[in-house]
Amino acid sequence: MKSLHVIFMVTWFAGLFYLPRVFVYHAMSDQNNLAQMETFKVMERKLMAMTNIGGLLTIVFGSLLLIIWLPGLLTLDWMKLKLLLVSGLIVYHVYCAHLVKVFRDDANTRSHVWYRWFNEVPVLFLAGIVILVIVRPFNG
Fold this sequence. Notes:
- The chain has five helices and no strands.
- The chain has helices at about 1-30, 35-70, 75-105, 110-120, 120-135.
- The chain has one domain (about 1-135).
- It is mainly α.
- The two termini are about 20 Å apart.
- About 80% of the residues lie in helices and about 0% in strands.
């Protein structure tokens, strides 16, 4: 169960790392090159689908771990903080889905520089979550 949680977490993060990178390239692309614009839209749609599956299965297997095998972890402060970070990651994920629709509708108004910074956000979530799980600060 834990292995499946980690496998799908890696899949989820792969999508959350790569999708905003595609946004960078899409924002930089020539708006008059319709074939290129359509290619980015297809890439974004497919990456979003993969990311949705990875995120959903990460949450499913993580929830099963907490409910069935390790319910005592829910009382620990480091786990509460981890779940808070996961909640933030879900918000980031949902915002990525919104951006896929913005690009699909040719309504993007942000620069590639903004997307470059946006692309770094999941690194912060990953670092925080991994550190909390490995170090288990506060109360063990």
